[in-house]
């Protein structure tokens, strides 16, 4: 049986203990299957990207009979009740109505939402990406409070109905290869370490720039060699490949 996650966001850990690595986060309204259990810990598999990990949760979750077919696109979004509020990070799933019954209460949905199959422009995607600027880098994170490079790309594209895997090397398997000179705004650039393994990803902007999560979500110069950090006067990431998703 599939379930709906009913907290704002929660760490998805590699093992069933709080001290283990956070590999990702579950966002409000995301559906998942329970594939294992250890005491109060549940091993879950997200239906959106197949990612697996452990969460601690003793209370029952809502089953997936709810039709959460809209995606939150405003990082100030929230479910509001007279004595309680639940934050809705960008990328959260929600129904299309203005009210939601949850935990025995009726909440008002205060968030800008869209359906994944609604039309969009490259400017819409870039505008949403820019709303994450200066969010701190956080391994496994997927929200403004802390986000990593692949989580940033995954969440931004998910709002516009483009489902991507969780990790950068997995995302590199999507779309089709193009050359650096063919790249345009909204394409993805991937970067490799000294062994050739893809470890970083960013969204290409206009005028030789790229937006990516490294220390924070930032905009840096981008060329055929990689990402140039003007603040430290050196290349921080070496270019591996460029992929086109929006027109593929």
Main β-sheet: number of strands, strand sense, barrel status?
6 strands, antiparallel, barrel
Secondary-structure-based class equals: mainly beta
According to DSSP, the number of beta strands is 23
Number of helices: 3
Tell me about this structure.
- It is a single chain.
- The protein is mainly beta.
- The protein is built from three helices and 23 strands.
- It has helices spanning about 120-130, 150-160, 170, and strands spanning about 1-5, 10-15, 20-25, 30-40, 40-45, 50-55, 60-65, 70, 80, 85, 95, 100, 105-110, 115, 140-145, 145, 175-180, 190, 200-205, 210-215, 215-220, 225-230, 235-245.
- The strands form six sheets. Strands 18-19-20-21-22-23 form a six-stranded antiparallel barrel.
- The longest helix has 11 residues, at about 150-160.
- The protein is globular and about 55 Å long.
- The two termini are about 35 Å apart.
